[in-house]
Write a structure and sequence with these properties.
Layout: H1 2-8, E1 10-18, H2 22-33, E2 38-41, H3 49-52, H4 55-72, H5 88-110, E3 115-118, E4 122-126, E5 129-132, E6 135-144, E7 148-150, H6 158-161, H7 166-169, E8 178-182, H8 186-198, E9 201-205, H9 217-229, E10 233-235, E11 239-246, E12 249-256, E13 259-265, E14 267-270, E15 274-276, H10 283-286, E16 290-291, E17 294-295, E18 308-310, H11 321-336, E19 351-354, E20 359-364, H12 367-372, E21 378-383, H13 388-393, E22 399-404, E23 411-418, H14 421-433, H15 438-443, H16 456-465
Parallel strand pairs: 1-2, 1-6, 2-3, 6-18, 8-9, 8-14, 9-10
Antiparallel strand pairs: 4-5, 5-6, 7-15, 11-12, 12-13, 16-17, 19-20, 20-23, 21-22, 22-23
The structure holds flavin-adenine dinucleotide.
Flavin-adenine dinucleotide is lined by residues 18-24, 41-44, 48-50, 54-55, 58, 121-122, 145-147, 166, 187, 277, 280-281, 312-314, 319-322, 324, 355.
Length: 468
């Protein structure tokens, strides 16, 4: 009887996707469209990081801060001064309404009758079996898409002092008077500027020599200058030592310029990155190799077990949502087309956007990598401060930088710090997608006056030097 029950609780699928966020949903949809029998397992809450605690809630609240910042500049545009008083709780309400809407839509997608959705935690029993809330599921292929969570950092006293992460600060309804932000990446800077624009005194403590340390130095420095102009304190080359706290606030002690210096704030935002969600999955029983907390994958998104793939934040290759989706689609394609040519991720068009103001958008090759890999390139930059439309908009911070192949002028990469950089970069993506050149950028019609016109100036400068 007992063995009969066990047998009746075993189900078999062609593909099982573990995690129903952006990467997992994309994988499940692709596998479904290939005509296979697909199960998705998600422990909930359903919706995924992008919708619940990542891209969408942050962009919703950033809009409130942008509006506040513009209103504060009313006089500059010939309007009577406007006084605005931010209401963080109302901003959070607006964000929650939007997030609910986005999440409801994703949940509907996950409840597609063409999938079987299990709302439970998945644990591997063997390379081909998992257990899900008492049911054993077997499959020929698995796609792991369990995402990430904020990294834990060993700064003495930090846990005792208490701190927010991006996961928790999005629900804060009482605005702190002051905030210490640990980190100088996208999440640190977007949230740091958000609070600063509401009126919180913000100090950003960054370990590296510049903000956005994975990008070219001039990119980080241009953004740093803009944030400092807004009144944000930025401390780079800061080595965190410890945190203390008392009734007056929380103090982060750093080693800076050879001496210990204290930075005091009412609250701390720890924005030092995220780590893959792999604990509890029993990847050892699946025979999947993990190195330094990361699942090792190849370009086809395969783990050390050829039938188990890992996509999205869980593999920590490019924790960005459209790349998580691409990875999910590639893994599902490969899982459902055995024996055929394998699809692999192409990093030529990797792009990253930071939604600060000014925004930052970087695409393809940058100077740091070109130098490190000895890739020859022609370089041209053009500042927004010399661009008519940017001056009309009162948004003249930043620049556009293009890298092109010295013989052909093919665009190899682009970096933009400036107004709407996240939108402008898409013209460069399109040109690079088709292997277009600086001459193509110049020849393509650009309406006047637009921000988009700016790319034609560095393109012209590259064309003048081609083949020299
Ligand atoms: C504050 C912030 C802002 C961001 N802004 C942007 C942005 O503007 N643009 C951008 O491109 N990217 C942004 N990102 C990154 C982006 O959100 C992530 O790269 C992306 O959402 C990761 O998707 P995923 O599918 O890999 O993981 P998730 O969406 O996290 O999905 C993982 C799923 O797995 C489930 N799960 C976990 N463990 C188990 C288990 N054992 N069993 C069953 N289910 C499990 C979870 O419930 C979850 O639903 C941001 C990130 C943060 C933190």
């Amino acid at each position: 009887m007992e063995s009969q029950r066990r047998v009746s609780m075993r189900k078999t699928y062609d593909v099982i996707v573990i995690g129903g966020g952006s990467a997992g949903y994309a994988a499940a949809r692709t596998a479904r469209d290939a005509g296979t029998d697909v199960a998705i397992v998600d422990q909930g809450p359903l919706g995924g990081l992008c919708i619940l605690r990542g891209c969408m809630p942050t962009k919703a609240i950033l809009r409130s801060a942008e509006v506040a910042a513009l209103l504060r500049r009313a006089k500059e545009f010939g309007l009577s001064p406007v006084s605005t008083k931010p209401d963080l709780s109302a901003i959070v309400d607006r964000k929650d309404r939007l997030v609910r809407e986005f999440a409801d839509y994703r949940i509907q997608q996950l409840q597609d009758p063409k999938f079987t959705l299990y709302q439970s935690r998945a644990v591997f029993l063997s390379p081909h079996d998992i257990t899900v809330g008492g049911v054993v599921l077997s499959s020929g292929s698995f796609i792991l898409a369990t995402g990430s969570r904020p990294s834990e950092v060993p700064i003495p006293g930090l846990a005792q002092a208490g701190y927010f992460t991006s996961d928790t600060i999005l629900d804060l309804r009482t605005q702190p008077d002051s905030l210490i932000v640990l980190g100088g990446g996208a999440v640190a800077l977007e949230l740091g500027q958000f609070f600063a624009r509401l009126g919180t005194k913000v100090t950003i403590l960054q370990r590296g020599a510049t903000l956005l340390s994975g990008m070219d130095e001039d990119v980080g420095r241009a953004l740093e200058a803009a944030l400092i102009e807004e009144g944000i304190e930025i401390v780079t080359d800061a080595q965190w030592l410890r945190t203390t706290h008392d009734a007056t606030g929380k103090t982060v002690w750093v080693m800076k310029d050879g001496r210990e210096q204290p930075y005091v704030g009412e609250e701390i935002l720890q924005a030092l990155g995220r780590q893959p969600n792999i604990e509890g999955l029993h990847l050892d029983l699946a025979g999947v190799t993990v190195d330094g907390g990361r699942i090792v994958v190849d370009g086809a998104m395969r783990t050390s077990q050829a039938h188990i793939y890992a996509v999205g934040d869980v593999n920590d290759v490019t924790p960005i949502v459209h790349l998580a989706i691409q990875q999910g689609e590639i893994a599902a394609y490969n899982a459902t087309h055995p024996g055929g040519p394998v699809k692999e991720l192409d990093h030529r068009l990797d792009v990253e956007v930071v939604f600060t103001d000014p925004q930052v958008a970087v695409l393809g090759l940058n100077e740091a990598r070109a130098k490190a890999d000895k890739i020859p390139y022609l370089l041209a930059t053009y500042p927004f401060a010399d661009h008519g439309k940017a001056l009309c908009l009162g948004a003249s911070q930043g620049f556009v930088k293009l890298l092109a192949a010295p013989q052909t002028g093919e665009i190899l990469g682009g970096q933009i710090v400036g107004p709407d950089a996240g939108e402008l970069i898409h013209e460069l993506i399109a040109v690079m997608y088709y292997h277009g050149t600086a001459a193509d950028l110049m020849r393509m019609p650009h309406y006047h006056p637009t921000l988009a016109e700016i790319v034609t100036y560095p393109a012209e400068s590259i064309v003048e030097r081609l083949g020299a």
